[in-house]
Amino acid sequence: MNRFPVLEIFGPTIQGEGMVVGRKTMFVRTAGCDYSCAWCDSAFTWDGSAKAEIQKMSAGEILGELQRIGGSHFDHVTISGGNPALLRNLAELVDLLHQEGLEVALETQGSRWQDWFLQIDDLTISPKPPSSGMDTNWDMLDSIINRLSEKDRLFHTSLKVVIFNDEDLHYAEKVHKRYPGTAFFLQVGNENLAENSTTNLTAILLDKYQWLIDRVVNSQTLNHVRVLPQVHTLLWGNKRGV
Ligand SMILES: C[S@@+](CC[C@H](N)C(=O)[O-])C[C@H]1O[C@@H](n2cnc3c(N)ncnc32)[C@H](O)[C@@H]1O
Ligand SMILES: Nc1nc2[nH]cc(C(=O)O)c2c(=O)[nH]1
Ligand code: SF4
Ligand SMILES: [Mg+2]
Prior knowledge:
This protein is of the alpha/beta class and 242 residues long. It has one domain: Aldolase class I (TIM Barrel, Alpha-Beta Barrel), CATH 3.20.20. The chain has 6 helices and 9 strands; from the N terminus they run βββαβαββαβαβαβα. The chain has a 9-stranded mixed beta sheet. Helix 1 (59-70) crosses helix 2 (91-99). The model has no long low-confidence stretch (mean pLDDT 98). The structure holds S-adenosylmethionine, ligand 2KA, iron/sulfur cluster (SF4) and magnesium ion. The site of magnesium ion has 2 residues, from loops. The ligand Nc1nc2[nH]cc(C(=O)O)c2c(=O)[nH]1 is lined by residues 13-17, 27, 42, 80, 107, 232, 242. Its cofactor is S-adenosyl-L-methionine; Mg(2+); [4Fe-4S] cluster.
């Protein structure tokens, strides 16, 4: 039996981002990432600061915990991280959740492929713009989008790029041009990860949202796109587990 490194299981809450924003869901957050984005809002999954909280759980134990805290208040589970795509055997969890009649979403950055991506109901691929400090492996991203397209999974797939500045917007234009057949989301970047007043943060993020909308409105290539804030951050600030 495989065991997976889990840092948090929480919910029900709403999916605060992207293609199924607003969807009532539970979250399973795995530990470990192959990236180290400068502005990662979940750095505790990879920077060692929450190492003591990592639990090695089987798919059955994860389902048990989801049911213990979520009861019968959910029918959708979002797997995020860290990068859950580092876990080759996670198909075991995806299959078990499906057997229970639950829908499954995944958040990943497009640096790794797993065959179980083909089973995901709501697949968000979030390539990282220059402000992250990470380099995009375009061959890998091409191959991920190609495989999903070949298996007719683009209907279940979206691209989501977080934007902090004009250079990031330029990167987003490049991604959208390269994959015009994939639903495309631009997301407001939160650069105030240490702010603990939700009121202050909300005001800042709404300003950023307006800025981002203005920029997208003025772009000639970002047309078939959606622009969103992180709704959970607007509501609950930098709190974990919401
Ligand atoms: C924490 S990541 C985990 C999943 C995966 N590693 C990834 O990056 O897609 C989940 C989502 O949060 C986004 N994100 C991380 N830090 C953020 C920030 N400071 N502001 C806005 N979005 C952020 C990521 O770009 C990603 O789309
Ligand atoms: N409510 C809520 N929505 C989210 N969407 C993506 C999240 C993530 O951290 O991957 C996230 C999260 O942590 N909370
Ligand atoms: S890829 Fe995702 S989890 Fe990893 S460092 Fe970047 S935002 Fe954080
Ligand atoms: Mg988050």
